[in-house]
Design brief:
The structure is a homodimer of 477-residue chains. Chain A is α+β, with helices and mostly antiparallel strands. Chain A contains 14 helices and 23 strands.
Amino acid sequence: MSKENKMITPRDTDFAQWYTDVVRVAHLADYSSVKGCIVIEPNGYAIWEKMQEILDKEFKKLGHVNCQMPLLIPEGMLNKEKDLVEGFAPEVAWVTCGGSRELEERLCIRPTSETLFCDYYSKHIKSHRDLPKLYNQWCNVFRWEKETRPFLRSREFLWQEGHTIHATREEALKETNQMMDVYYRFHHDILAIPSIRGKKTEKEKFSGAEYTLTNEDLMYNGVTLQMGTSHYFGQNFTKAYDVKFTNKDNKEEYPYQTSWGITTRMIGALIMVHSDDYGLVLPPKIAPRQVVIVPIGKDNEEVVNLAQNYRDILLENGVTAYIDDSDKSPGFKFAESEVLGIPIRIEVGERDLANHKVMFVRRDTREKMEVSLDINIVEYTKNLLETIQNDMYTRAKRRRDDLTFTAYNLEDMENILNTQPGFIHAMWCGNAVCEEKIKEIKGCKSRCILEDKEPITDTCVCCGEKAKHYVVWGIQY
Amino acid sequence: MSKENKMITPRDTDFAQWYTDVVRVAHLADYSSVKGCIVIEPNGYAIWEKMQEILDKEFKKLGHVNCQMPLLIPEGMLNKEKDLVEGFAPEVAWVTCGGSRELEERLCIRPTSETLFCDYYSKHIKSHRDLPKLYNQWCNVFRWEKETRPFLRSREFLWQEGHTIHATREEALKETNQMMDVYYRFHHDILAIPSIRGKKTEKEKFSGAEYTLTNEDLMYNGVTLQMGTSHYFGQNFTKAYDVKFTNKDNKEEYPYQTSWGITTRMIGALIMVHSDDYGLVLPPKIAPRQVVIVPIGKDNEEVVNLAQNYRDILLENGVTAYIDDSDKSPGFKFAESEVLGIPIRIEVGERDLANHKVMFVRRDTREKMEVSLDINIVEYTKNLLETIQNDMYTRAKRRRDDLTFTAYNLEDMENILNTQPGFIHAMWCGNAVCEEKIKEIKGCKSRCILEDKEPITDTCVCCGEKAKHYVVWGIQY
């Protein structure tokens, strides 16, 4: 077997090409004949299904219920909330014909569903007894992006959008925070991505929100990815859409709203944080298949029986194991299991069996371990999966820390961004003019404001005036 | 408690209004401000999730993998298959603007995805070693319907569409049959709907298919509902989209294709087959929540403890039980559990407990059963759920049989359709002219051809000429 997978450009040679190669070679997604839209292939979709399974359970545990709003929004309905229109109208797809007839009112394909939920709320919420409503939907949305890249930015993408509405400000604030907690924990505990979290600046927050909480990931190349946001709307939308309820004091009031979402982009993050020159590397907790068993010597009954025995006992104990008994050569199977990012490969060969052994191979480190047949296979595998999960997190965290810098002035900022971008910690005066000026350096943007942090200095990294916020900056996808 | 739910029009008074009332009162779906599109509310969506869970497992067991094709289809791509264009073009929604720019080529919202799969196949299938491919996707589709009704017919609906491609005709034929088996079994075993299955006539088959297998349900009012179809395409699409592979003899050949789908319409069928004047009635196997426990006397510790104890032990044993501990009155809770179609209600009251008893109430028959506290609650509940499931099937089958008629001539046909429609068994010559003539009687259509059935007569029900097919006819939704 060759030292590197020849079909994949080395990560350090050309990061962008490496990313595209991994997506293609691992059959995660394919370009479609529809400009800006991708086909999510079975290997990619299986990761999304696993993400859905875990997150959906979390949402439901917190009392949320799933529903489904329409795909299309009439233009007049979208226009009711000024900020939202300004934020989204330039990038929606418009349906203007139904069958052979031209429509009287254009319909846009939902870029997000706040308006549709408000329309629904306005019909169903009358009293404080109808509150809170805790909704979520898993669906596709559409934004007319100019530059697209598989998973990272495409015109259509899959996501979940949570929408909740509450009788009090406090309850809605709590919800906004709670859902950011869910995303943050999911990143750290399941995706093994050491994300950071904070508040968006006024400029970067969601159109129409009072504020936006964000979860930010750092990719291997130091570029940042916004992955998971939670918005507090206050009464902005309920006023625009005239949603009212009678509160406990029998007075009419506008309720308080939140929304929060996370997308198929996470698959892109998994690639860019963990993967390597041999293909995909998946944290065991999100890997649709955790263990591949490769029998070497298909006609040897002992080999075949042991492979089947291992698969069955692992499956019974909640480890998703499968046997690769295809006609390919063992070398090809090994390379393929690496490309696909299967966390553990167990090689069962005649020669090893003669020595009363099998071979375990970790995908993350590619380390090979000869293991005696006397071990408890379930326990050993489960421990190894846990070790891989933890080691992947530790390595990603070390990389993140290595690429986390502090800037005291604009020159520092420039030096960092010209040498090796990453998360840049710097103080900010709160003035959008400074944000704009920093953006001139390679498009660097504020990622999030960290609250309750010890200030680095008391002056703004850009203008030198009095600093108001501790901000993390970076170049974004 | 009133004898009937006042918010629901009696089924025998006005079937259409009764249906709409059940949908509304059970909060299954709501009309949206987007014409022809519905909001699937949490109670309706939970049923769909349960359907997805069960079917998805079946599909995967048979080797299918999930993926996701784009939402939009360029006009030129759709135009490649003549029959498909003719079948669908009059009823698609067209996107003509992206952002503020007019598009050079119109894009339609997928009414179905054969074209997109073919486009994908054409890039990825080269050799017989690449076959078969067994794909499925869960998604939304859009058809510009004129008349719409919640679940039964709406512009947007949710469905799954399976798409498979094979090296041989035999394999594709087998797949077409196998997937119809899955739908048929799902109807009988899970939905408790005694559907019939057969082949569509040339006139009624899917645009572009060589033939279509269909599963047909009979509603309580004798109207039929097509629910689940499986299409054999032969090489029709692979030729149109130029999908070729090198077969085992190293010759170029067009592969063989199938597709099969089932939709949120099934929720409509559940209502119209099983439900009654008190609201929804759900077969236990598809009910998102199987048991509601209503504590009567919220301050009585014994009552509260027993309710919790029952819920916990039922949940541990795989029965989805919950406690209704809201502030509503017991009478209101009883009525609500009936409207929602929860199969079993357990009433835990102070007075009953004093007699060492609790009350079980079946939703399907509304029968009340005093049960001693000494019983094995899990065993009793599981048995009762099974009894309900079986009884619901038996009742639906009796109704179907009662509404199944035989016609020997056109006069019979007219009499039946004017008195009480249902499944009408009658022989047919195979001529579309006769099909057209029968349609003039209240829009009655061929539902399916039953193969290998003993002929009723040897003459066509319409023209009296020699009969070719044993056909079931009916009025459809």
